């Protein structure tokens, strides 16, 4: 039996300041670093085999801190042309290494014009209900940005194409990503309806564990 582990990045500086981040590349806060280190401790006894993350540093920082506590060594696969050979042949990795793939399909939802704005101020300007709809409805886009449905439609094909084969091969897979890209993944694997998805909140730095058994995901509480 193998596992899928989902980790939302630790608190970022803009989580701390209560600002919409989206694709703005804001690093972790001190608390976020501590959350990622606590998560690393929790995962230390579990052998991770392959790692996926986004192109945003808060998710990557979280992943690197997690991997620092693993016995195997993470190897980050860069996309530069020169390193094509090495980067695109992960079958060369041996059992002592954890290939790390980063891809913008796993990025946070693109928050459009809201990026950088304080969430409390946005409520004052647009009203609490409107801001809730933008933040948590499934298919309403925030101004100039992606709805959760848009995020789902880019995240899930990547999940199916790149991540599922690793699970099917019996690997323990960790994904370090974001509130909304991971809400998409949880919606998909737990089959959560469009009506129920607004209730799903993911805590920063707290791993979610799914056993992968005969093609099915079983959540471990
Ligand atoms: O600011 C963001 O990018 C996200 C995650 O912190 O916010 P929200 O919780 O509103 O989706």
UniProtKB/TrEMBL annotation:
This chain's protein is named 2,3-bisphosphoglycerate-dependent phosphoglycerate mutase
Q: Where is this site: Transition state stabilizer?
A: 178
General function of this protein: Catalyzes the interconversion of 2-phosphoglycerate and 3-phosphoglycerate.
Signal peptide span per the entry? none
Q: Which UniProt keywords apply?
A: Gluconeogenesis, Glycolysis, Isomerase
Q: So what does this thing catalyse?
A: (2R)-2-phosphoglycerate = (2R)-3-phosphoglycerate
Q: What EC number(s) does its UniProt record assign?
A: 5.4.2.11
- GO molecular function terms listed in the Swiss-Prot or TrEMBL record: phosphoglycerate mutase activity
Q: What gene makes this protein?
A: gpmA
């Amino acid at each position: 039996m193998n596992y899928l582990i989902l980790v939302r990045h630790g608190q970022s500086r803009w989580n701390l300041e209560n600002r919409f981040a989206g694709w703005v590349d804001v690093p972790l806060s001190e608390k976020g670093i501590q959350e990622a280190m606590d998560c690393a401790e929790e995962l230390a006894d579990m052998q991770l085999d392959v790692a996926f993350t986004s192109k945003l540093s808060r998710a990557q920082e979280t992943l690197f801190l997690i991997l620092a506590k693993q016995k195997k060594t993470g190897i980050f696969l860069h996309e530069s042309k020169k390193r094509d050979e090495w980067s695109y042949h992960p079958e060369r990795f041996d059992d002592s290494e954890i290939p790390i793939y980063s891809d913008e399909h796993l990025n946070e939802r693109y928050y459009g014009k809201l990026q950088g704005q304080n969430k409390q101020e946005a409520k004052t300007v647009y009203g609490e209900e409107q801001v809730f709809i933008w933040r948590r409805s499934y298919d309403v886009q925030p101004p100039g940005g992606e709805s959760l449905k848009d995020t789902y439609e880019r995240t899930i094909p990547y999940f199916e194409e790149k991540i599922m084969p690793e699970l099917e091969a019996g690997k323990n897979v960790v994904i370090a990503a974001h509130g909304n890209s991971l809400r998409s993944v949880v919606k998909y694997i737990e089959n959560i309806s469009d009506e129920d998805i607004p209730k799903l909140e993911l805590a920063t730095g707290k791993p979610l564990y799914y056993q992968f058994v005969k093609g099915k995901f079983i959540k471990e509480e």
